[in-house]
Amino acid sequence: MSRFRALFASVCASLWLSGCSLWPAEDNPFTTVESSSDFSDAILGVYSLITWITCVVGVLVAILMVYVLIKFRDDGSPGNPEQVHGNTAMELGWTLIPVVLVIFMVVPTIRTIFEIADAAPDDAIEIRVVGKRWWWEFEYIEEGIITANEIHVPAGRPVNLLIESDSVIHSFWVPRLGGKRDAVPGRINRMWWTITDEVAAGETILYRGECAEYCGESHALMKFDVIAHDDAGYAEWLELMKAPPVVADAAVREAGEEAFAAGGCIGCHALTNIDGAVARIGPNLTRLGNRRMIASGTMENTTEHLASWIENQEEWKPGTSYNKLGDPRFDGMLIPVELSEQQVDALATYLSALQ
Ligand code: HEC
Ligand SMILES: [Cu+2]
């Protein structure tokens, strides 16, 4: 009986470990078995077909093996059992059946590869994606919007991503929207998809993404969000991103702008309403207050977290310290001066207010 229990426990454990906890998607944002776009639908189709074929083959082989083990077990009778040399029917069988099975898997696979490698439709929204260490820059080519770590897209419309890198190889991956695409320096990889989920008016759906190619110390902290809107919601977001952010409280704005210049932030970060803040070493911080997370999905976007990030990046993300003199990424940049507590507070309050 205890043997049975041990067996039962190990079967349960292996099912659990092998990913049976991958859904529902709400609890498992990185699930690959719930698709939300035409691209991931196509891949999931091939994936399920191959999984079912291999399951059937696996079960049949296991049954046959158990049968053979029992039927031909050593029953204690003397001498060798009858010896067999060659059997044409069996040899044909175990050659032809796998060939047919492989054809069943190869044809849909190749068809899907060509389908997803096809050119994007003309009306697709083009977004340039640049993998950086360790965050993502998103540029809406036609709209002239540059943002970071959060892409907003309308559901039901094709989105064409032009993926590149400014540093080492990264990989752009939103498990529910499609496969991985490497971000390689000096080359542009494409991927396009249309979100198939319905987004209710005034609501959004959040899909999580992450870097899927080891790229250095903070690789695991290189996440991003894809936020799907309905058409009206997307148009509204575009308008919002194009208009200069309004910081209603003049005192907050003045103190913030002053500290932004004095602290050297201006040397690395762009802000559309500040003269001279056009640098792109770090993320564009325009409308940072609207974002869900900061530092590419590392921490929730709160004023306390912002202050803590400004004071010590290294604590949150290894390798991101602004003060690494000699780091070639920051060559010729203004390294921030020591900030006073008031300046840090002013910056955090100001950045939160950029909405
Ligand atoms: C030497 C260049 C440099 C300077 C100077 C600099 N930053 Fe940054 N900043 C970066 C980089 C690079 C990142 C992205 C780090 C990451 O997420 O891996 C970043 C990220 C940020 C983020 C998170 C942005 C996001 O999209 O989530 C905030 C907020 C920020 N910086 C604020 C500031 C402030 C305020 C100052 C001035 C005190 C400043 N930075 C000075 C390079 C710089
Ligand atoms: Cu990366």
Describe this structure in words.
- The chain is of the alpha+beta class.
- The protein has eight helices and twelve strands.
- The mean pLDDT is 88.
- Heme C binds at residues 134-135, 148-149, 218, 263-265, 267-269, 281-283, 285, 288, 294-296, 306, 309-310, 317, 320, 322, 330, 333-334, 336, 339, 347, 351.
- The CATH architecture term of the largest domain is Sandwich
Number of strands: 12
Strand order of the largest sheet: 3-2-1-5-8
Estimate percent helicity: 25-40%
Bound molecules: heme C, copper (II) ion
What is the overall number of helices? 8
What count of structural domains?
Answer: 3
Q: Beta-strand level of the residues, as a percent range?
A: 15-25%
Topology-level CATH name of the largest domain: Immunoglobulin-like
The CA-CA distance between the termini, in Å, is: 64 Å
Q: Based on Cα principal axes, name the global outline.
A: elongated
Q: Structural class, from helix and strand content?
A: alpha+beta
Summed over residues and divided by their number, the pLDDT gives a mean of 88
What's the alpha carbon Rg, rounded to whole Å?
28 Å
Task: Report the CATH superfamily of the largest domain.
Answer: Cupredoxins -  blue copper proteins
Main sheet attributes: strand count, strand direction, barrel closure: 5 strands, mixed
Q: What is the string of helix and strand elements?
A: HHHEEEEEEEEEEHHEEHHH
CATH class of the largest domain: Mainly Beta
Residue stretches low in confidence (pLDDT < 50, at least 5 long) are none
